[in-house]
Amino acid sequence: MSKVGVVLCRCNSHIDSTIDFNTLSEKIAKNKNVHAVIKVNMACSPRGKEAIAELAAQEEVDRLVVAACSPLAKGAIFKVYAADFHMPKQHMEVVNLREQCAWVHDSESATKKAVILLKMGVARVAKSKDVGNWNLNCAHINEIKCDKCKRCVEECPNNAISLREKDGYPQVNPDLCQKCGICVGGCPLGVISLPEFRLEEISAMLKPVAKADSPAVVGMFCEFAYEEADVMGQVGEKYSPNIYIIKVPCTGAVNMIMVNDAIAEGLDGILVAGCNASQCQRRKGNELATCRIENCQQSLEEEFLEKERLTYISLGEGFVAPAGIAQERCTGCGQCLEVCPYGAIQVSPDGKYEVYSSACRGCGNCAGVCRPGAIELPNWSDEKILAALDSILAG
Amino acid sequence: MPPKINLTKCDGCKAEEEPLCEQVCPGDLMTLNEDGKAMCRDAGDCWDCMCCTKICPQGAIETRLPYQLGYYPAKLIPRVGTNKIMWTCVDINGKVERFVVKTRND
Amino acid sequence: MCADKKLPKTIEDIEVVVHETDFLIIGAGNAGCFAAIEAKRKNPDLKVTLLEKAHIDRSGCLAAGMDAINTYLKKGKTIEDFIKWSRSQAGGLLREDLAIKVAENLNKPVEEWEEWGLPIKKDEDTEEYANRGKWDITIQGESMKPIIAEKVREYGCEVLNRVVATNYLTKDGRVVGAMGFGVRNGKMYVVKAKATCIATGGAAGLYKPYTNDGSGSHHQLWYCPFNTGAGYAMGIRAGAEMTTFEMRWCATRTKDFNGPIDTISVGYGTPMINAKGEKILQKRYADMGGDAAPRFIRANAPMEEWMEGRGPCFVDTREMSDEDIKQMKTDYLNERPSYVLFLAARGQDLKKEPIEIYGNDPYIVGGHTASGYWLNSEDWSTTIPGLFACGDVAGGVPNKFVGGCAAEGLLAARGAVEYIAKLEDEIEIDESQIEAEKERVYAPLFRMINEGEGIKPKEMEERMQRLMDEYAGGVHQFFRMNEEQLQYALKHIKILQDQVKYLVANDLHELMSAHEVIDRLDVAEVLIYHLMYRKETRWPGWQTRTDYPEKNDQEFDCFVNSRKNPETGKIEVYTREYKQIVPGDRLKPN
Hints:
The complex is a heterotrimer of chains A (395), B (106) and C (590). Chain A has helices at 21-29, 46-57, 75-84, 98-102, 107-127, 151-155, 182-186, 199-210, 223-234, 256-265, 285-302, 335-339, 365-369, 383-394; strands at 4-9, 34-40, 63-68, 92-96, 140-141, 161-163, 170-172, 192-193, 217-222, 243-248, 269-275, 310-315, 324-325, 345-347, 353-355, 375-376. Chain A is of the alpha/beta class. In chain A, the strands form 6 sheets. A 4-stranded parallel beta sheet of chain A has the order 2-1-3-4, with helices on both faces. Chain A has a 4-stranded parallel beta sheet with strand order 10-9-11-12, with helices on both faces. In chain A, strand 14 and strand 15 (353-355) form a beta hairpin. The longest helix of chain A is centred in the first third of the chain and has 21 residues, at 107-127. Chain B is globular. The termini of chain B are far apart. Chain B is built from 3 helices and 7 strands; from the N terminus they run βααββαββββ. In chain B, the strands form 3 sheets. A 3-stranded antiparallel beta sheet of chain B has the order 5-6-7. Chain B folds into 2 domains: 1-64, Alpha-Beta Plaits; 65-106. Chain B has helices at residues 12-15, 20-24, 51-55, and strands at residues 3-5, 30-32, 38-40, 61-63, 75-80, 84-90, 96-102. Chain C folds into 3 domains: 18-248 and 363-422, FAD/NAD(P)-binding domain, CATH 3.50.50.60; 252-359, Flavocytochrome C3, Chain A, domain 1; 441-559, Fumarate reductase/succinate dehydrogenase flavoprotein-like, C-terminal domain (Methane Monooxygenase Hydroxylase, Chain G, domain 1, Up-down Bundle). Helix content of chain C is 37%, strand content 15%. In chain C, strands 1, 2, 5, 6, 7, 8 and 15 form a 7-stranded mixed beta sheet that branches. In chain C, strands 14-9-18-19 form a 4-stranded antiparallel beta sheet. Chain C has a 4-stranded antiparallel beta sheet with strand order 10-13-12-11. The A-C interface holds A 143-145, 147 and C 57, 146, 150, 153-154.
């Protein structure tokens, strides 16, 4: 059985001034998968890293959960630690106790929620597997279970999946795969995984949520929506603690099998948050997600369950401020037009490079290649997510 | 027994050559009709094992009993998870019952 | 639809696909899958090929799952205990040598299945498998078939889905593979093999089910209606020795739905009652053990009550607690989910209305009775060299059920692997067999194209089913038959066999149906011979001869076996001695 080492980061009192670390460590130590629990002052500091290294070095510990700030904040650093500890990336989970817990809830609720979030993290890494000879840079299709229905081939926005000549099984081209997880979300049998995103892991995370105080809603937030949720924490905008957010690569990666697990476990709702359909950074993830969700909502009604239990919310409604090209700095090199995946850069009749705003999805590829720095990206809107969260949790 | 197909939900498994229901039926009874939607060749030959109903990713298939055996309009709807299935059963009087059945070890 | 494009129009159109393998397993069901896995475990270098007429993930009896393993040796129970019990349940007739080996291997496949993912109910305190009955444990088997199918693929076996096996390839009295056709692609498959194992299950649909009134409930059977006795038929045609077909499986089932009843009666201890509320087994069969009476007594009891005017009969669920009822429905969802729909479609409150029971149409099932191929206990081979058998298609061991069939898969694989290791010569086949089979298999298709008319497989199936039901002891006759009825049945089965040449098929699916009827006719013929030969009633219900209502131990305390001579087509029926190994009274369970 996997043994997990749990690291609770005080974040220099940012976290533990709200969340009661004693309660937290007591409760999580009782978990059968947890070997040891340590508290550090700042996990991102050299001292913090030492302490975590010591924990990871313990013979019995083969999984780590670092409960600290957002994985999109310093949390990214901990994943780098994993390499130093010779621990596969998927064996380590960063649990967001700061932006999405301590900073947005009152002490009692934050502590209770922290326990659940920690349990979710532990459940996930306990389920993570040694992926052996999987290619870590692309999706993996389990041919033992695959039925060759070819849906993944049809749905991949990057045409990264094709059929193998000799036996008709789909295979992923690692050069084209963007690890968006859309294939993971669409596979009817759930046989596709990313090394760090597997159906079984997500399902394992749902069990602790089922035990939380009712109503308990799980949030499947795509990376961009997750960032927005972090922003709520950064501005200190409080909301109801009944939502437990899981970061997914794209809303298209949410497989309805996960939704089925959630409902079977007894969760009250599933909130899928992502971008507006035309703004998906992964090109089609949201369209597919909304289709699947609409279908699932219909089934929910047939089963005498409220269709609102599964809801999709999107950021931005229709118009999203596109990238802008500052003409005074533009040198007309045309690189932006070359790299734009959406054909959103055009040359006007008088030779100016302009952004075609309806097609722009704010992916930033253009800004990335613009040497003179003439291209600017807009920010996202977080009013929408606030309002939607409030309404779903009020219900 | 006759599996009933919801033609709006069914997408013929993206009209690939063999939709999932056709792949799985132990009696070789499911196939695509001329419009590229699922259909059961011979309702009377169905064993109501419900494999098609469980595997359909769109939830487009409903298993019904022949009227000879059971009255209208009872329903039994599976919701398939990774290692469990939640069944919702509605009887002819409208009573709703739910069951969660484990299908694989954790 | 797309199948039309694949339909061969002439014999020259037929594409022949030839495969060569070491170990060919026909039928990728429970037994077949375990045989494949064991063969690979014994020798990973062996090429193992499975032929499956459906899809391995959900083929055969376990398509919807299973809610119990009815043969598991629990702590404190010995192999002798098992033999004695099984023997008594079978009216004292079983191959003790085979049964002992099966019993030795009963537990392993179940434990492996659990390791691979099958949830098994455990006792909370002891963490051992929870008891459901004497030999039964409760499982949550909805996905048990996909679980072993995945293992088969993991071990690197070749699976040919949607290929219907039609006959063995034989050479010099040996089985060297099999032939069949693809029901999705119309191709002919010829698989050469060093050793072949038949694992196609039993035979359903020989008799008319009582719900088959033509309005859409044709396949409302307890047994899998897609197990049509192909394995028996192929063996019969090749001259393999068969045993005990007359020990038909006629059981008590839920009325109309024809669903399993053990879930309720064994699982929750509900008594069998008649219309007057009397506990049938205790009242009328106390001398045969009451509630613990042999299976054929329990199977027949409700039918006798009906005949005597005390029907309908029920299993009394009215005293069950709400939790138990919910749990029982959950158990059903594991193996026959539509039974829960059936109860819902009647708005049935089990606390007010008990579950009605009735007998089912007879099946030939080697997993429940001793019907099937006559085997050699050394290596699970049949009487034809190169051919092994396991599962419901193999005979001699009643009360095998799911666990025993899995165990037989292991045993047959071991036998085959050893046989292959000893082979010295190359496999040679007789090309003329392929040509002859091509003509035989595709004839209905070509008849439709050339003549445009003939008999549809469904029509012939209906005719056969009513014939068997009325004259060979079907459910409408309360399983009773006499010499004259059986002679009549045989006469008309032979006419039907002769009429096979008029069968037509419009597409590949109908072609498969045509062969299902042809195979069933061959099985029915042998069945009638067996029923005629045993001039006694050994198992009332399973085999009730109204003209010989008593048991005749002097002449028939033995096996009734048969063999069709492949040259003359004549069926020889004879007896084989009973060999007792485990001492004790063969009719008593202890």
